[in-house]
Design goal:
Blueprint: H1 3-21, E1 30-32, E2 36-46, E3 49-58, E4 68-75, E5 83-91, E6 100-107, E7 121-130
Antiparallel strand pairs: 1-7, 2-3, 3-6, 4-5, 4-7
Length: 136
Amino acid sequence: MKKLPILFAFALMLTLVHCESEPVTGGEDVIVLESMQLTVDTTYVFGDSFRAEGKVTNTGNETITPIWYVEGAFFTSGSSSVKMGGANDWFNFSLAPGQTAEWFLRFQDTQYPASEHSNFSIGDLRAYKDNQGVEN
């Protein structure tokens, strides 16, 4: 019986540590990678989640080194007036000038049942790095 409080405390600690390491979608303390061109290939509902897939191309002259992110916001409709939330995808590889990578974003929230918002949209796309004194 004493193991239950220990397991609970351990699970809580893991959750808190994991949440602190996740970038905040739309956060301002990042380096936006202006040379990254983002396109959306498809959006769809899968089960209870909203999904979006696309490509990111390095149109600049410098290689983007890891770790870098792609993020976007999910909206209830194409008008982009009601934001449901956001998601990000991270990349642990470099992207040289002219190279393209595929990204995948998934968002789920019980407040927004996917079955009721099949006409959702994605926007506010950007590629970025954490602001840790990194230049590219």
